Amino acid sequence: MTDEFDALKAGLKAAPAPRAAAREEALARAMAEFDKLEPLAQGSASALRPKSDRPARAGLVERLTDMIAGLKLRPILTASTSVAALGLVTLAVLPNLDLRALRGPAEVSRVLDEAQKEEAVATLAEEAVPAPAPEPAARKVATPNSGVMADAAMEPEALVVAAPEMAMMPEPGQVLAEPSTEAYANQAANPVKITAEEPVSTFSVDVDTASYAIVRNWLNSGTLPDPEAVRVEEMVNYFPYAYPAPDGAEAPFRPLVSVLPTPWNEGTQLVRIALQGRLPAVVDRPPLNLVWLIDTSGSMEDPAKLPLLKQSLGLMLADLRPEDQVAIVAYAGSAGEVLPPTPASDRAAILAAMDQLSAGGATAGGEGLELAYKLAQKMAAEGEVSRVLLATDGDFNVGISDPDGLEAYIARQRDSGVYLSVLGFGRGNLDDATMQALAQNGNGTASYIDTLQEARKVLVDQLSGALFPIADDVKIQVEWNPALVAEYRLIGYETRALMREDFNNDRVDAGEIGAGHQVTALYEITAPGSPALRNDPLRYGAGAAADSVAPASEGEELGFLRLRYKAPGEDQSQLIETPVLAGAEADEDARFAAAIAGFGQILRGSVYLGDWGWDQAIALAESGRGADPYGYRIEAINLMRLARDLAR
Q: What three-state secondary structure class fits 254?
């Protein structure tokens, strides 16, 4: 690039001074070329999408605009299409231009047109040098979303020269990666709490599984995941466990407590708290009214998005009952009803409507949600369950587009009794934060689907649990006994934390449990006097701890577990209580859950694991693998091995 730049400067110096008439002619033609950019500059900013939503463009300037937006450079040296029409080779300097705020050709054109138009045109005319039009030359360019270099002809209308330190054109064989706009919802890991100071821990249950599938996708692509993408509780709750189901006369779910030595810390113990939801017979469940809200924006064109989405929802149809109903709403630049409420038995009509869907346009997610909720409310009847099933990459940018705004909107809508679940598809612009805001405030769950096998797990194997709720606003509160537990740490659930007073407040929203669903939570606890204590005893006051305390005897109360839940459609919660007893026997499931919790903490870079690492996590998972009828556990063990190799 330096040689080209030097050659250009030498050519400019050797060129004869332009004639006055030629200057005027060049100025007029340059102004005409700039005026051609006006339609782009006049475009609505609200309709803009990231370049993954727009078809590939042949023009060099447009491709450079994409590169500029993706690379987020500051000052650039470029030439406009007006140079091409004049058959010129020249340089236009755009000083102090901050491209971080620019997205797409319309924004760049606006800056060119409004801020630099007069100066740039004058500069072009001043520096005009007659030059023969270059012959088109084959070269490689990066195509949007593909990551593959494709042959294209260099347009004769423009030649761009950049300063050597900020070369913008790809070298031969170079792939320009699509800039990632992924955003994840997470918080810092829960700290160790001192029981004497804060004996009560309160959180909302969580049965989402999106994080595990996203982590798996990262690892299978050959990269360790972003630590922010790892939510340990979602990884633990991805797997089925053999928990005992509640009897018919009992509450809709049954708690189970067990205690085992902490694998990564010899001086502490793990307390597993598990809930098993009741799974009624299929014939006993109420009819389902499902509104499939499908993102058909341009960003969904990737094979791992809309095409996989169609296949995934098609799998669900075989397990729906004739009295269930399905409607389809699609949204892109605007939202519309694709299929009116239709009996699930009419598979031909449903599949035909889905086949008509194609990707293109902006993402009017807010408008789509409004239409879907209205349709679901019209479909609802006494004793039936209505649910919006949103399938998207989460990238809303028209209408209600920020997580806070979506959270408030969904919070208002859940009072109608319509549930909302979210299915995430694809990578690159996956907006996990938006998906979490929607699912948590819509009394639903969030899942991520990257393969047809995952679609079968979520939408077929777990169909009833994913769609039919048995308890709403489920909250867990544990009071630890300071005589036997000096410190404790809740592993995961950072985004589900509640204030202590929220537990008895029925107006505070919490998690939903579906039919047959399971919930697993893990606490690491430390006895007074243990060498594993992380906090020194207080010098003054009742918080001062003894030098040593005998381990809790079997049957002693380590703590007390309280659960609150509401029956679907009810406003008043009910309470379940049970003690957390020392010596409660652990099993293979507890060991495997501990191994997955360790897996997630390693990926997050936890400071609580000491020297415990990949080999120990793999060995623990293998010891708790058990029957593994679906192969989920051996898949996790293989992912651990892969992560270990990638981390070396």
A: strand
Pairing of strands 385-392, 288-295: parallel
- At residue 147, the pLDDT reads 34
- Domains along the chain with CATH numbers: 2-166 (no CATH), 193-281+469-536+544-647 (2.60.40.1170), 287-447 (3.40.50.410)
Handedness of CA 625, 629, 630, 631 (dihedral sign): positive
Beta bridge partners of 177: none
Q: What is the pLDDT of residue 166?
A: 37
pLDDT of amino acid 572: 95
Strand partners, 472: 566
Going by their DSSP bridges, the two strands 469-480 and 193-194 should be labelled as: unpaired
- Measured distance CA(182)–CA(427) in Å, rounded: 8
Q: Is 356 exposed, middle or buried (0-12, 13-18, 19+ CB in 10 A)?
A: exposed
Question: For the CA atoms of 371, 376, 378, 383, what is the dihedral angle to 10 degrees?
Answer: -170
- What pLDDT does residue 441 have? 84
Q: Is residue 358 classed as helix, strand or coil in its secondary structure?
A: coil
Continuous segment of H or E residues that includes residue 345: none
Alpha-carbon span 391 to 313, nearest angstrom = 9
pLDDT in the model for residue 11: 56
Q: What is the pTM of this model?
A: 0.72
Q: What is the DSSP letter of 48?
A: -
Residues in the chain where the model's pLDDT stays below 70? 1-180, 333, 362-365, 395-406, 541-550
d(CA 369, CA 363): 11
pLDDT at 238: 96
